[in-house]
Design brief:
Pfam family, one: PDT
Shape: elongated
CATH architecture of the largest domain: 3-Layer(aba) Sandwich
Order of helices and strands: HEHEHEEHEEEHHEHEHEEEHEEHE
Catalytic activity: prephenate + H(+) = 3-phenylpyruvate + CO2 + H2O
Distance between the termini: 36 Å
Helix content: 25-40%
Protein name: prephenate dehydratase
CATH class of the largest domain: Alpha Beta
Number of domains: 3
Structural class: alpha/beta
Site (Essential for prephenate dehydratase activity): 178
Domain Prephenate dehydratase: 10-185
Number of helices: 10
CATH topology of the largest domain: D-Maltodextrin-Binding Protein, domain 2
């Protein structure tokens, strides 16, 4: 099989088959084969090395916040964001055949998933057990075949690993949704005349008073909406912060261009990670 053929057929994700990332891949690209990877770094490498055309990466959840480590990894991934997907997360309490809600004493899952069902577990006196990923937890529970052990995972994981659904939709918040970004080797340059566009970038401000305030002022004066802004420390001395931002608009639009120019004046570096069509979920059309 040639590299070109591989690229047309495969999308990579972190985790094992049955993970929510796997489910997101199948929802957006049902024609592609999903490729499980052990880590986010492995997922990025699969695309760079030609094993996959695309990567599906979870970035934040409406209940549990941002996915750990991902903001640190994106700037050096060597890939570009070309799209986004919002996946409704319907957590299922899974267990081996014969188990009941009363028999389950411990539940295994990823730390993010456990955070999203915290109240349910507390109400039922079930002990949470951290696992590397949701589907891997389901696979392990299937192997243990112990009615006292359960997993929080997807309906796809239940189907793959032969587990029963003891209780469906156990997440604490009804709006439980994960935002994924779709990444590729080559950047996308969508026409803003065809619909709303999102630009994602990272930046580090200079160490001068009010640098962040002044740098972001250009977005206000030029009428550019910042939909997401987060900071995280990137040095051992806790003195250098990098910021991750999503804005509405295309860098070629005059307002966005002027805002980014003003930000650059007060920043050591501004790096665009991707320019891509806004998902219809943002305005309720999906």
């Amino acid at each position: 099989m040639t590299k070109a053929n591989i690229l047309r057929q495969v999308i990579a994700f972190q985790g094992v088959h049955g993970a929510y990332s796997d489910k997101a891949c199948r929802a957006v690209f049902p024609e592609l084969t999903t490729l499980p990877c052990g880590s986010f770094e492995d997922t990025f490498a699969a695309v760079r090395e030609g094993k996959a055309q695309l990567a599906m990466i979870p970035i934040e959840n409406s209940s549990a916040g941002r996915v750990a480590d991902i903001h640190h990894l994106l700037p050096t991934s060597g890939l570009h964001i070309i799209g986004e997907h919002f996946q409704k997360v319907d957590h299922q309490l899974l267990a081996p055949k014969g188990a009941t809600l009363e028999s389950i004493k411990r539940v295994h899952s990823h730390v993010q998933a456990l955070a999203q069902v915290r109240n349910f577990l507390r109400d039922h006196g079930i002990e949470p057990v951290n696992h590397a990923d949701t589907a891997g937890a389901a696979a392990e529970v299937a192997e243990m075949n112990d009615p006292a052990q359960g997993a929080i995972a997807s309906d796809l994981a239940a189907e793959i690993y032969g587990l029963d659904t003891i209780r469906g939709d156990v997440h604490d918040l009804a709006h439980n949704t994960t935002r994924f970004i779709i990444m590729a080797e080559e950047p996308l340059d969508p026409d803003p005349n065809n619909g709303p566009v999102v630009t994602t970038f990272v930046f580090r401000v200079r160490s001068v008073p009010a640098a962040l305030y002044k740098g972001l002022g250009g977005f206000a004066t030029n009428g550019v909406n910042i939909t997401k802004l987060e900071s995280y420390i990137i040095d051992g001395g806790f003195t250098v912060a990098q910021f991750y931002a999503d804005i509405e608009g295309h860098p070629d639009e005059r307002s966005v261009r002027l805002a980014l120019e003003e930000l650059s004046f007060f920043s050591k570096e501004v790096k665009i990670l991707g320019v891509y069509p806004a998902n219809g979920f943002r305005d309720g059309n999906e």
